[in-house]
UniProtKB/TrEMBL annotation, chains A, B:
Organism this protein belongs to: Halobacillus aidingensis
Keyword match Transcription: yes
Keywords: DNA-binding, Transcription, Transcription regulation
Protein name: Lrp/AsnC family transcriptional regulator, leucine-responsive regulatory protein
GO molecular function: sequence-specific DNA binding
Domain HTH asnC-type: residue ranges: 2-63
Gene3D superfamilies, alphabetized: 3.30.70.920, Winged helix-like DNA-binding domain superfamily/Winged helix DNA-binding domain
Coiled-coil ranges from the UniProt annotation: none
Amino acid sequence: MLDHTDLKIIQELTHNSRMTMKELGDKVHLTGQAAATRVAKLEEQGVVEGYTVKVNKKKIGYAVHAFITVMTQSTSHHPYLNFVETQTKHVENHYKISGEGCYMLECRFVSHEQLDQFLVDLNRHANYKLSIVINHQSK
Amino acid sequence: MLDHTDLKIIQELTHNSRMTMKELGDKVHLTGQAAATRVAKLEEQGVVEGYTVKVNKKKIGYAVHAFITVMTQSTSHHPYLNFVETQTKHVENHYKISGEGCYMLECRFVSHEQLDQFLVDLNRHANYKLSIVINHQSK
DNA sequence: GTTTTTACTTGATTTATGAAAGGATAGAAT
DNA sequence: ATTCTATCCTTTCATAAATCAAGTAAAAAC
């Protein structure tokens, strides 16, 4: 289904999704047209879900990066889930997890004050453990 | 420094970083050239750090997604940090955190067996708590 | 062994990009 | 008020890339 060339294409686009199909073709030893056809196929298959940009969040004012492990005490998760729905401004990722806690939130905030307010609001629906990111490296 | 148009540009590129500068210009009411100039400036400023692709990891064989909170018992973190360096294949993100634990790893594995082996290796340097992702939604 | 499918290339046309030049606007100095 | 300057934008045009339509070749199906 996916051959070596497809994986190479994914790898190249991961490093720079704005490269031209001609450039991509050169990297994987295909013409630009052939590369474009492969990419279109990867999109159809749902392997490639979209293209995005890596933004330096600090530089756009979001200095605080936090992971919040959520322990819902009530039998129904709905109040909590509804709350999360209202917080799209801060919630970057929402994971349902096994292990300690039921959910984990990856969030961004302008300030600790904003984080504090979020935690106050969150605590009306669930208990939590907070981990603030001091430093980060991605591969 | 960053005006409303810049933020709109970042938003648009976040949703689709492969759109042409002409399209982007249309979205933010500029010519393609003006949009391209702004994007170039955002790159120079380090606000835009790069362009990447959203890949469905399951479809390329990485079925297991886990967060691992790491508690290093030894006074020196170096053995652990050196270990992490060797695991770039699995470690997608490495966070230094405050809160419970010293570090948090976001990892991908083909199988639970592979995860198990990773944990065995990790445990030679540090203790950990495991959270496996059951479901995920990003904004 | 022929047909069909798949993956690629080539060539022509449309479209986007990048560079250079010019125009509008706002703020500061005179 | 006027001029200077800087910034940001648009327009124009040459170049490069993307797209579309055939056409080819090799592998797979029958």
